[in-house]
Amino acid sequence: MSLPPIVASLTRHKLTALLLMLQVGFTCAIVCNVAFMIVDRVQQLRQPSGVAENELVLIDSTDLDENAQPLVRHDADLAALRAISGVKSAAAVDAMPFNHRDWSNGIALVQDGPAPATATAFNGTPGELATLGLHLIEGRDFLPDEYVPLGSAHDWNGIDRVPVTIVTRALANKLFPGQDALGKAIYPDEKPVRIVGVVDHLRRPQAHESADNDDATLFPMLPDANDVTYVLRTDPQDRERVLKQATDVLNHLHANRILRHAQTFEQLRADFFHRSRTMIALLVAAALGLLVVTALGIAGLASFWVQQRRRSIGIRRAVGATRRDILRYFQWENFLIVSIGVALGTVLAYGLNMLLMLHDEQPRLPLLYLAIGALALWLLGQLAVLGPALRAASVPPVVATRSG
Fold this sequence. Notes:
The chain has 2 domains: about 5-45 and about 275-400, no CATH class; about 55-265, no CATH class. Helix content is about 50%, strand content about 15%. It is built from 13 helices and 11 strands. Strands 3, 4, 5, 6, 7, 8 and 9 form a 7-stranded mixed sheet that branches. Strands 2-10-1-11 form a 4-stranded antiparallel sheet. Helix 9 (about 275-310) packs parallel to helix 12 (about 365-395). The longest helix has about 40 residues, at about 325-360. It is elongated and about 100 Å long.
């Protein structure tokens, strides 16, 4: 198919062709970025937490007694919770994946040096690793004498007293690429802390960039605030019963407290990603709607041009053009329009991606999405123009010439 006749025909309809090219360009730019955002959010939904998700139940407890001794209260609560039938283990923690309680600090490799990573600090009572179901891939758990003494201040004062830490594989690889992290020292504050263990995964309580979501440390510091989360591990079929019994037990032990968010870990995860799932649905609907509008625009314009060109189509048929020649003409014409629109859309896509990177911490748009977007629009254009092109190809030479 020769392009000059097609280009000449489009120059006689400059405005309509330009508008369609712009529509294709904007569609390409938006759909490519939306597709990238959808994939990124779906990957976040599937990101492992590192814990035994289908075996955990959680209860947040807030002690209203200002004179209470939190550590003593936690010991009594945990003893009663472990006595519940079906409870394999229990621990008191200050943070969990997806619960938004994110205490993060920079991790340096030398004192007062730059921090190549920022990690969440998880604190809990002995048995935290076993209760959460964390997979220890190297090293060991904390020893009893490594926990910060009960009379010591925790938080930032306590972090300078902990002798050892357990880190995630992601953080170990980031701090010591290509090396074994065991035995090495890190500086979460002013004093060195030795790494004694590495766990496979431990998702941070809040959403971060994908590369940072697994950067976490565990410290042998006991939660010493009036707010604490009790985590119980049980068989999946016993979770609802254990959760109800645990709530009753805690209320019976001490009524002057508030119990909140009594739920399974799977419910916690579902609530955390509720907005993401809603956003994915809206983005999918918006992308599909935009593609449908673009397809309708292509089909509408092609139908208009077929109606306008009936006489010229008939003349071409009369001088020997086949149905296939007419069909190919409209397909090539559409391919040219869409290709120019895609070229424009590529520039717009990267411009939009830069704005999203600046204001929404969106990662850089990979070239693969532009290739897929271009292929999708070319296919959409060919499907949209197929109906009008077939109608044009079916115009009989005699009828067309007589209509002139």
